[in-house]
Specification:
Helix content is about 90%, strand content about 0%. The protein is an all-alpha fold.
């Protein structure tokens, strides 16, 4: 049980690192990306989110097998 929680916290930490690096290195591009998201229809965002989640699960499954 604790091992799974540790993996989750490491993954969460990596998300913060990647997002932080994007804002630190490319703040203009990050702002443009957020503006683009605001203009994108919700159905498209939902589809992209589902596809991304599925790809993430497949990658984890392949790596952790």
């Amino acid at each position: 049980m604790l091992g799974g929680m540790t993996d989750f916290l490491v993954a969460l930490g990596l998300v913060f690192v990647i997002e932080g690096l994007m804002f630190a290195a490319l703040p203009g591009a990050a702002k443009r990306a957020m503006a683009s998201v605001m203009e994108t229809p919700e159905a498209t965002l939902r589809l992209v989110g589902i596809v991304s989640a599925v790809i993430g699960v497949v990658v984890i499954w392949l790596v952790r097998g």
